[in-house]
Amino acid sequence: MQRGLDCEQGVLVVLDGGKALRAAVNAVLGQVPVQRCIRHKERNVLDHLPERDRPAVKRRLRAAWKLTDHAAALERLNTLASELAHSHPGAAASLREGLAETLTLQRLGVHEQLWRSLSSTNPIESMIAIVRSTSRNVKHWQNGDMCLRWTAAGMLEAERQFRKIIGYQHLAALAIAVEEDLAATRTQTTLPTISPTDHTTSTTTTEPAATLAGAH
């Protein structure tokens, strides 16, 4: 943003469950839609389960996240969390934490092809893995400038493998959905709370209607 990135119309943020990152998004970008990485969430939930129970829960998680119907997907995940609460409360708590944000793309009505690309942090983690591979033979890091140069070299190497996002044709629709979602959020946060006993507010809101009726 300091370099001129305009986020006024809204952005979609895809991140893992890191609390520091989430706090930074709130502080810098405000109430923008956030998609939690479903792969991180899946690993976090499964880590709380014994080995024998992991395959079944993994299948149910992925089946729910594949649904394009937001309400149906949310219901399935809540049902799974309720079932896990009895036998594995740690797994249930992990699933419930940020659960709604694992379905942000479905809530926005994003096309299924594009959803597959943006539902996890895998694209950027792939680039990070290439940067690590490029610099793995460096044994002595002299200073911060050297770190930056090697990072840039690794990113240039990764760039050679960049491809178009699967479902890129639907990015325009996503941009509109994000803008509308942000506008709705801003409206909700700026609307005044009207008290039932606030006669002044009530009179103010009815005056235009009375004036209009008188004009006719």
Helix content class:
55-70%
Q: Which stretches are poorly predicted, pLDDT < 50 over at least 5 residues?
A: 200-216
Radius of gyration: 23 Å
Measured between the Cα atoms of the first and last residue, the distance is 51 Å
H-E string? EHEHHHHHHHHHH
Instruction: Report the total helices.
Output: 11
- What does the main sheet amount to? 2 strands, parallel
Strand content: under 5%
In the sheet with the most strands, the strands line up as 1-2
Structural class: mainly alpha
- Overall pLDDT confidence: 87
The overall strand count is: 2
Question: What overall form do the CA principal axes indicate?
Answer: globular
SSE layout and pairing:
Blueprint: E1 13-15, H1 19-28, E2 34-36, H2 38-46, H3 54-66, H4 70-87, H5 89-96, H6 104-107, H7 112-118, H8 122-134, H9 144-159, H10 171-190, H11 199-215
Parallel strand pairs: 1-2
Helix pairs in contact: 2-5, 3-4, 4-5, 8-9
